[in-house]
Amino acid sequence: MPDPTPYPVLLADNIARHLGLLAQHLSQAPPDQTAQILGRALDVNDGILGQVATLVETGSRATRSHAEQGIFPPEVWLALGRAANDLNTMCADLDDHAEDFQRLAQPTRANTTARPPAPVASAFVARRHR
Questions:
Q1: What is the 3-state secondary structure (H, E, C) of the chain?
Q2: Which of 37, 46, 53, 55 has the smallest number of Cβ neighbours within 10 A?
């Protein structure tokens, strides 16, 4: 008996599974690979985050028409609209650091024995751009 699950639902399940695998790789990656993975995943135009933002924005538009027809509760549409706005803000914040990811993704030289600079406590203070 064939699986009645529509292809787009299976695709969403498969993407979620692959994102889990990517997160596992990221947790064990050396610094240059971490920067490569994050740089590509967080790319606003072609990366995972940018595509998820587009998906949520498209979902908001789709649920709006369904909410206007009384099929979906309006709260669903509004929640997706807020999420799309939040994701777009997040994309803009992270896009400011795209060059940092590219620079950090460059392989380090194995023959360099210089110690990396000590982390500065103030560098870990969250800074938000508005």
A1: CCCCCCHHHHHHHHHHHHHHHHHHHHHHCCHHHHHHHHHHHCCCCCCHHHHHHHHHHHHHHHHHHHHHCCCCCHHHHHHHHHHHHHHHHHHHHHHCCHHHHHHHCCCCCCCCCCCCCCCCHHHHCCCCCC
A2: 46
